[in-house]
Specification:
alpha/beta; Arc Repressor Mutant, subunit A; 2 domains; globular
């Protein structure tokens, strides 16, 4: 039986392992970026079966021979983190690697490809900002972007077209998985004729809704610099404007991952503008966002949502639990709401005036 001193030493050593895990966790997304930039998932997908390291190295023509041995170590690390799967056999000389559900989302050209989102999320501009967390929290500057770069995220996007493009491509790719969830929510769209997608960017969400429910007329509503040069289709059109001023009239307003960008005060302003735009009896606001529920989720889901909350905090946004969502709805003058728990990270909330 260990003494109290021995137990204390064990606890401290275990604590060291936890700290090391946290300190070096930044390596995970960087290795993921490495895999995306080299097209590892594409190579395995095109190979048609699990691939050996020698076969993978042969396909990675951009890796010089002197560094070929590093590939196995990268792949071992990524497999440990659930990006790829290792298959070992006593009959085979080399272990093989196959795609997992996570890396299937990294195959370019697939319906649900998230490589643009990975490249945006690991952009040096975003990553470098976090070195300024201490100065930001202890200072008077409103957001982390303003502390690190001297201007807000939205101003930075406006002044840096390349970053704006990467941001929009990342957000658009993140929308693709909606196809897998909205088709199970057909009742939400029944009885509607017109929908405004507020902050709809290049129209990815509106196009997905249009494909699933072709009778609907959809308006993508965003800032002039976002939608000014975009062309519509028979049932998807683009309108420029400011959601803090007014929103086009429709049966329903869609807010897909918009409100988590903003403070409670700004969210209430946006929701009030939405309420003014849905004058018909069947009018409602359709919100697609994460809902934090630490007591009823697995660790990965909760950790992802809480991590995203820190990210949103740096631009004065936040992820919310149901109680916090309800407070916003009541403050904006809405009477009731209904939550649909979608598969994955997000929920759909119907909000009624």
């Amino acid at each position: 039986m260990a003494s109290k001193n021995d137990q204390s030493a064990i606890e401290l050593l275990n604590g060291e392992a936890i700290l090391h895990s946290q300190l070096f966790s930044f390596i995970r997304p960087m290795c993921l970026k490495w895999a995306v930039e080299l097209g590892i998932a594409d190579i395995i997908h095109n190979h048609g079966k699990p691939i050996t390291i020698p076969e993978l190295i042969l396909a990675l023509v951009q890796v010089p021979p002197a560094k070929a041995s590093l590939v196995k170590r990268f792949m071992r690390f990524l497999a440990h983190n659930g990006i790829f799967e290792i298959h070992e056999s006593l009959e085979e000389e080399h272990e093989t690697y196959s795609l997992t559900p996570a890396s299937k989302l990294l195959v370019n050209g697939s319906d649900h490809c998230l490589t643009p989102f990975v490249l945006w999320a690991t952009d040096p501009v975003r990553i470098n900002n976090y070195h300024h967390l201490g100065n930001w929290v202890c200072g008077e500057v409103p957001t982390l972007y303003e502390t690190a770069l001297g201007i807000s995220l939205w101003e930075y996007l406006d002044k840096n077209p390349e970053y704006m493009s990467r941001f929009n491509e990342g957000m658009a790719s993140d929308c693709q998985l909606l196809k897998l969830t909205l088709k199970d929510c057909s009742s939400v769209f029944e009885g509607l004729d017109t929908i405004v997608d507020v902050g709809g960017g290049n129209g990815t969400v509106a196009k997905i809704i249009s494909q699933l429910f072709p009778k609907l007329k959809l308006v993508v509503f965003d800032l002039p610099q976002v939608v000014g040069n975009l062309s519509g289709t028979n049932n998807v059109s683009y309108v420029a404007g400011d959601m803090f001023v007014s929103i086009p009239q429709a049966d329903a307003v869609v807010l897909k991952r918009i409100l988590h960008d903003w403070t409670d005060e700004d969210c209430i302003k946006i929701l009030k503008k939405c309420k003014n735009s849905i004058s018909s009896k069947k009018g409602k606001v359709i919100i697609i966002e994460a809902i934090i529920n630490e007591n009823q989720e697995d660790k990965v889901m909760t950790e992802t949502k809480l991590t995203t909350d820190i990210m949103m905090m740096t631009i004065n946004g936040k992820e919310r639990n149901e109680k916090e969502w309800k407070e916003l709805f009541v403050a904006a003058g809405f009477k009731h709401y209904k939550i649909y728990q979608l598969h994955g990270l997000r929920s759909l909330i119907e909000v009624y005036p």
